[in-house]
Specification:
By secondary structure, the protein is an alpha/beta fold. The chain has 5 helices and 4 strands, in the order βαβαββααα. It has one domain: Metalloproteases ("zincins"), catalytic domain (Collagenase (Catalytic Domain)), CATH 3.40.390. Helix 3 crosses helix 4. The radius of gyration is 15 Å and the shape is globular. The two termini are about 25 Å apart.
């Protein structure tokens, strides 16, 4: 069984980054959600402009945001005739986090940057696993699960 969590910090954030900590958060969330290896997921910590460009290019929203999730799992509304690799690895996708946005949001909320980063990792991975917050019921379910997982992850 293979679990692969690729983590990339842009150069400017490497001094403040803790790759092992980010990996433990992701592993905790995936395990709690019943995702068994083999799987692959990517976490990217970058600047606000890169996230804004991705938000504009892929979502049509020319605004900064804190986290984007690019899911690779088949979606309900997508043609399922697309061939997946026969190796049995579940490729979940990538979570892109704006490190500066996380720092700013943590200050606004009055808590540590690590807590905000953990929340953004959790939020992004939940999106990869099919959670959404477009409808009020979906949002309530996702926020409740984020809170539960954050409590589980804080000692990480």
């Amino acid at each position: 069984m293979r679990e692969q969590i690729g983590i990339h910090f842009e150069e400017e954030f490497r001094e403040v980054a803790d790759e092992g900590w980010a990996r433990r958060i992701a592993q905790t969330v995936l395990k709690a959600e019943g995702t068994a290896p083999p799987y692959e997921v990517g976490l990217v910590f970058t600047d606000s402009e890169a996230v804004r460009q991705l938000n504009r290019d892929y979502r049509g929203v020319d605004e900064p945001t804190d986290v984007l999730a690019f899911c690779m799992l088949p979606q309900k509304e997508v043609d399922d005739s697309f061939a997946l690799p026969p190796d049995g690895v579940t490729r979940l996708g990538e979570v892109i986090i704006s490190y500066p946005q996380a720092v700013e949001q943590a200050k606004e909320q009055g808590y540590a940057t690590e807590k905000e980063l953990a929340l953004l990792i959790i939020h992004g991975i939940l999106h990869l696993l099919g959670y959404d917050h477009e409808e009020p019921e979906e949002e309530a379910k996702m926020r409740t699960r984020e809170k539960e997982l954050l409590e589980k992850c804080l000692p990480c």
